[in-house]
Amino acid sequence: MEVWVSIDLLEGRVVRLVKGELENMMVYSNNPAYVARQLSATEIDGIHVVDIDAALNRGSNLEVIKEIVKNAGDKQIQVGGGLRTREKIQKVFDIGADRIIVGTILFKGRELVSELVRDFGAEKFVAALDFNREGIVYEGWSMTSYMKLDEGFKLVEDLSLKYILMTSVERDGTLQGPDMGFYEKIPLEKRRVIYVSGGVTTPREVRALSRINYRGVILGRAYYEKLAPIREYVKAAKGGLSAG
Q: What positions carry a catalytic annotation?
């Protein structure tokens, strides 16, 4: 299983929001490029960049993302947040991102998604199925689609997208751990393409998700607050045992 670390950007800073709420924000660095450089020296598989300002239609961190890419070494980079037009997506590819996370346009621009998959290839995109109790949410988690996850899976399949990112909004940034009972109910054939995000805290949780065949995890606070050495998360993901 893959391990990715998230760099969430707000006004050029590395932050974490609890449950996506701006009033519950923690700032971890004023130097995202330095964070990327630190991550480049670890054994993680990639860096997951989220432009919160763009997601909330309040600005852009494109220049910051460019510096993150420059400092990420050989790590894969996937970028999301406010990428709702072909022009914006092309700009992010142009600065060196490997994959784009598509969320809002899954629900408001399906024809564009189909064109993007045709032109760039399915492996270049990750479908964001961020969810709360009411269903799948989008547009910086400010809008609820009232689409259930099985409908979301069908939409992803219809659009020929290859990878899925599932973020539990109610657990994101909380260090509560993933709801393993929930993830065990997801069909096995789906788990192989899903990245789990939201509340992942310990290497033991990573190992549990690895054992039931999820493709990857996205770490946030667990990494920045050094709850365990990053190598322990990687070891757990690759099949090693951990006391975490």
A: 8, 130
